[in-house]
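Can't paste images in this forum, so I'm doing it all in text. The chain is below; anyone willing to post the predicted structure tokens underneath?
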Amino acid sequence: MIILLGETPAAREISEYLQNRAIRFRRMSTWTDRDDLSVPSVILDLSHPSSVKFVSLSKFCEQTGIPYLRFERPETNIPKSSLISQAYSWEEALHRLNERISALYREKERQVKVFVTTGSYQLESIVHSSFAGMARFIVRVLPEGHLVQKCQDLGLHPRDILAMQGPFSKDINKALFKFYGADIVLTKDSGPAGGTDTKISAALELGLEILLIRKNIVGYGLTINNVSELISWIDKNIPKT
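Text version of the structure:
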């Protein structure tokens, strides 16, 4: 059994490819624990780039000898700016977000508007955080019903849910950030292909603070940087079932 992790566009593309090739697989949004995995023949990890769980997953695969492939887009060349803060884990991002929201809340004496472009990934930890009462979260997610429903179930107002398929140009990002009056842009480094560069340039032109979640480093397994390379690996190493 192949385990395919992730709800990213690349994960959906690989899912369709596996279905078309009649290759048996199980798709999961993220890895929780080793019991969920049973004994997979290979793990294709296309989960969120800022996920901290793939580090322990990598170690698990190393210990069990399960082939592990991690999909990673090339990192973005980040400009130097005092408006950009960087975090290397979700926990660190929440800590920094707490600091900046608290400071801006005291300064502006109103709710701080945070434009979230990390999708629905770990959205619960933001909405249910200790600083949530000081902020208004505008969340951009993929135009899929279950993701929009998830946002609504978490209590987000429909006006603050943007179901849109990216990547977007700098002008579109700039228009959205300006329309919602964003104070902070929370995003992840998904590379130029994911539009990270246009989000950053748009936010900087508007003078907005940016909290950028960078990638962790995986120690075990094969790292692949594009979908065609992963498809080529599948063709060579995974037979039809």
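The longest strand covers residues 135-141. The chain has nine helices and eleven strands.
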